[in-house]
């Protein structure tokens, strides 16, 4: 199967909107607004175009991942981080490791750009395979009171979260 991973382009936005909406329709954990969140993030100062990636097959987008700027609020300063959200794969192509390919490619690009860590809210059974651990293990709590096992952090480089303790707000 001939596939291409590339940065999203403005001409892709409608296809991405539909992909995210449809791929989350049957997801066990969702709020139904994931596609709207993507649009909102694109219009914010958190958007990093190089870290919004698609997998394309025969000019059709079948997968999507987005990493955006995010901050950990310490006692006296903010620490930059990235938020991984969403990861969406067309229902016809799920369970083929395409999400893994997208996440790994986005992490590779993020490291090349000098980023050191990533935060995600999701299923620990899925995200632990990438090396994510409960963010509380790094001294990072969330302001919304979400169960700590669902808010996870990952160091893109060794010690990427060293001395970056604090709290994160998961509201956009």
UniProtKB/TrEMBL annotation:
Residues 3-157 form the N-acetyltransferase domain. It comes from Zophobihabitans entericus. Signal peptide: none annotated. One of its GO terms (molecular function) is acyltransferase activity, transferring groups other than amino-acyl groups. Keywords: Transferase. It holds the Pfam family Acetyltransf_9. This is N-acetyltransferase.
């Amino acid at each position: 199967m001939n596939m291409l991973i590339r940065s999203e382009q403005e001409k892709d936005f409608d296809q991405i909107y539909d992909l995210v909406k449809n791929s989350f329709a049957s997801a066990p954990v969702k709020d139904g607004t994931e596609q709207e969140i993507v649009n909102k993030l694109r219009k914010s100062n958190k958007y990093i175009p190089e870290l919004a990636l698609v997998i394309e097959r025969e000019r059709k987008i079948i997968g999507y991942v987005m990493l955006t700027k995010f901050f950990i609020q310490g006692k006296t300063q903010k620490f930059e981080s990235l938020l991984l959200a969403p990861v969406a794969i067309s229902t016809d192509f799920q369970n083929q490791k395409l999400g893994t390919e997208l996440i790994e490619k986005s992490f590779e690009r993020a490291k090349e750009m000098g980023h050191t860590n990533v935060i995600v809210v999701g299923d620990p059974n899925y995200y632990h395979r990438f090396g994510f651990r409960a963010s509380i293990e790094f001294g990072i709590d969330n302001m919304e009171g979400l169960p700590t096992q669902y808010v996870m952090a990952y160091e893109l480089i060794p010690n990427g979260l060293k001395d970056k303790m604090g709290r994160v707000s998961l509201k956009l």
